[in-house]
Design goal:
Rossmann fold, 13 strands, alpha/beta, 33% helix
Length: 285
């Protein structure tokens, strides 16, 4: 971990060190309503300079859906080369278990995640592994609602694939539990959970593999830059994987860092679980 974070006003002074950029979407490229024009411009300039840009999201939906969403928001196509989501990673993990019967723990709205895959869905008793996309009813249930079932899976040593590592989500001002809360509860019972999204390794494995395929060459970790706005997912994930990171501080942590001097900002980074290599308010060239 760097001893201090280099504060930047734009990415231009450092991007020459990198060949591949793994960039978060929500909070960096757009705010859920409109794109950040300066960020899109910076990513397009990176690509023009020879950097491959892979957008990386914890959305538990396939990349094709995110591409449609980005188009509707007005994110220009020249801002990225490819998209990888935790949904894609989950599909990749399922594909590696082709033919094995699985139990889908989650709402029916997530069934498209398995579309086209050799993934026979069975009841809990017949399953060889579990795909968890969420709670059946996240408005009324909690992880505790599944304690008995999770304990049975743990006794049988079933692997649980978690398609969305987030613990909770803010839905219209109400905090509701996500698949990550079930995966954590499962691990506390001694079960094995594989997390499809950031900060865990599988999503970086897939994003880097796609980036290298696009470039037609292997890219060393020292030549990869991860960009994001969240310490727990983007910055921690990059650090654990051995990648350099750039944090956009006006994103999810903006309320904590608003008005901090450069010295106070360094102190804030020092109190976190992981420290980014670089930081700037919003991604810009």
């Amino acid at each position: 971990m760097p001893s201090s974070t280099r504060l930047l006003s734009g990415v231009a002074p450092v991007i020459g060190q990198y060949e591949l950029c793994l960039c978060d979407i929500w909070g960096v490229v757009h705010n859920g309503v409109a794109p950040f024009a300066a960020a899109c411009d910076a990513l397009a300039r990176m690509r023009a300079g020879g950097v491959t840009v892979v957008l990386v999201s914890n959305a538990p939906r396939p990349r094709s859906e995110i591409a449609v969403q980005l188009g509707k928001l007005g994110v220009p196509g020249d801002a990225f080369d490819a998209i990888v989501t935790s949904g894609d990673v989950a599909r990749d993990l399922i594909a590696h278990r082709a033919g094995e019967p699985l139990y889908h723990l989650g709402p029916s709205r997530d069934l498209p995640l398995m579309a086209g895959l050799d993934a026979p869905r069975v009841g809990p008793a017949e399953a060889h592994y579990v795909l968890c996309t969420g709670l059946f009813d996240d408005e009324t249930e909690t992880a505790e609602s599944y304690a008995e079932q999770l304990a049975d899976f743990a006794r049988r040593k079933l692997t649980l694939i978690c398609a969305n590592p987030d613990l909770v989500v803010d839905r219209g001002g109400r905090i509701v539990p996500c698949a990550g809360s079930l995966a954590v509860a499962y691990e506390q019972l001694g079960g094995e959970a594989i997390y499809a999204g950031k900060p865990h390794a599988p999503i970086y494995d897939l994003a880097i593999r796609i980036g290298q395929e696009l470039r037609g060459e292997t890219v060393e970790k020292a030549r990869i830059l991860a960009i994001g706005d969240a310490i727990r997912t983007d910055i921690a994930g990059a650090a654990q994987y051995g990648l350099a990171s750039l944090m956009c501080v006006a994103g999810i942590h903006a309320g904590e860092m608003a008005g901090l001097s450069d010295g106070a900002l360094q102190g804030w980074f020092g109190r976190q679980s992981h420290r980014p290599d670089y930081a700037m308010p919003h991604l810009a060239w």
